[in-house]
Amino acid sequence: MVLRVVTADDAARRDAAAIAAGVPSRALMQRAGVAAAQEIAAKYRDRLTGGVAIFAGPGNNGGDAWVVASTLAASGVRVTVHSLGEPRTDDARAERAHALAQDRFADVSGSERIVVDGVLGTGARGTPRGEVAGALEAMRTQRAAGAALVSLDVPSGLDATTGDDAHAVLADVTITFGTIKRGLLLARAAAGEIVVIDIGLGTHNELDDGAPALVQAADARQAAPPFPPDAHKGTRGRIAFVGGGEGLAGATILAAAGAQRSGSGMTRVVVEGGSMAAVQGSAVASTAVRWPGDDASAEGIASWAHALCVGPGLGLTNASRNAMERMLANSSCPVVLDADALTHAAQQMDSVRGLLGGRPTVLTPHVAECARLTGESNERVEQERFDVGLSLARSLGAVVLLKGTPTVVSAPDGRVAVSATGNPALATAGSGDVLSGIITTLLAQTGDPFLSATAGAWVHGRAAERVALRHGVRGTTLDHVLEELSAVWHEPLPVPEPPVLARLPLVITA
Questions:
Q1: Can the peptide bond before residue 365 be classed as cis, meaning omega within 30 degrees of 0?
Q2: Cα dist from 243 to 78, 85, 93, 150, 487, whole Å
Q3: What 3-state DSSP class applies to 164?
Q4: pLDDT at position 103, please?
Q5: What is the band of 405 on the pLDDT scale with cuts at 50, 70, 90?
Q6: Are residues 410 and 466 in the same domain?
Q7: 390 pLDDT band (50/70/90 cuts)?
Q8: 403 and 287 in one domain?
Q9: What sign for the dihedral angle of Cα 206, 208, 209, 213?
Q10: Beta-carbon neighbour count of residue 326 at 10 Å?
Q11: Which of 307, 384, 404, 429 is the most exposed place for a label (fewest CB within 10 A)?
Q12: Are residues 271 and 294 in the same domain?
């Protein structure tokens, strides 16, 4: 099943479509609540004897909470309920009445070991006030005293679309229903671990409204099929990296290492003369040549390569721009444009569009680079992270991978995917160069820029997650990330047990 990354309005449309097709709205609520209760009981089995405090708001999120309350109480768990006002919907009123009819709830103690946040849902906006604000503060107090806080759908106070978490409670786990809300991926610190539950939206989850798909492990695996038994270095992909201006050789070395750790057969680094010694001393598995001084030299490099990566450590001189243009003009193979190549491209968009010539291409900008390419401000790019890359992709006829939290990949044909792997271990110089090496290798082997970009982003982030589990984040280096890349390609594919659709781990930050 494809998981969609949605706005609050997108989520509401999917619920409405399922209801219009005959799925009772109360059935959606019951499935959500029962599944959440089962997840809580399984995850916090050792805490259940300490009791569960449930905060139920007046909307449908509160209705979900009442289902959780009645399900846990029916299984013998000591449950207390903080009810915030009268339910506003028929379904929520019915679930509260059903729960209260059981007469199984205990008095509120404030010392419960688990807190369930069912106060505000995806439709909430603005600053919480009054009784709602008091409930959020009470939940924060219990969490500070050691309780585990589980939010239903989104943490209360979090904007499900924008990720504004200024007033949100901080969840240890967010159990979200049917889809992944954009805000959860933009505010991972507030969301904690994210568990996606199937509530029966079925085909209605696939509305044709352009909502991005979440990249998962199986998607990444599709980009890395097994090598045939008779494979040799030439058939596993020959990659040329054009960069390495004087004093900037390290970026090219890291890109080549990323390629080698991702299964490339041969790598060649094309650098300025002053960087030759550095790359030959460090990138020992790569051959090295100088930037081409004429078209014949450029054509010779290009004819050898199955894919080019232009930009790592390229520099912003006239000579580096000439090297980029000459390589693009004399090649037709797939290409990745990264780093300084993107800055050059932003200054001459029409020229670069012509040099790309419709070939399979991936651009890998960070926010500032994307702002230069689109003419927008950095702030606007961040605000429109899920959408801004698509117009650029269509303009250039190229796949655009916007780095960040989360990474968003857009294709000229309208496809958009979101990769939510990673952590601050990647927030270091050279990380993007490793990513470019991964993507370029996959592009050489598959010829598919969208698949290569989405898989590369997921694998890069997953390697960082493995690093954090082994070493933490502080003090780790890209050497650790490179070491884990090999293992990521061979990890068993996760198979969540229904009704769980996916699990996104807590982001380790220290």
A1: no
A2: 63, 63, 64, 48, 28
A3: coil
A4: 86
A5: very high
A6: yes
A7: very high
A8: yes
A9: positive
A10: 22
A11: 429
A12: yes
Contacts with 336 (C-beta within 8 Å, 6 or more apart), sequence order:
307, 308, 309, 310, 311, 361, 362, 363, 364, 436, 439, 440, 443
Question: Residue 260 pLDDT more than 90?
Answer: yes
Q: Is residue 496 part of a domain?
A: no
Q: Rounded CA gap, 205 and 15, in Å?
A: 8
Is 321 part of any domain? yes
Nearest to 502 by CA among 166, 119, 205: 205
pLDDT digits (tens, 9 = 90+) for 424-465: 999 999 999 999 999 999 999 999 999 999 999 999 999 999
Q: N- to C-terminal Cα distance for the chain?
A: 33
Report pLDDT for 42.
97
Tell me: do 134 and 247 sit in the same domain.
no
Please enumerate in sequence order all residues whose Cβ is within 8 A of that of 467, keeping only pairs 6 or more positions apart, or say none.
Answer: 425, 473, 476, 480, 481, 484
- Cβ atoms of 362 and 401 within 8 Å: the answer is yes
Determine, yes or no, domain membership for 498.
Answer: no
165's tokens: 């978490």
**CATH number of the domain bearing residue 365:** 3.40.1190.20
- DSSP string over 433-478: HHHHHHHHHHHHHH--HHHHHHHHHHHHHHHHHHHHHHH-STT--H
Q: In one letter, which amino acid is 105?
A: F
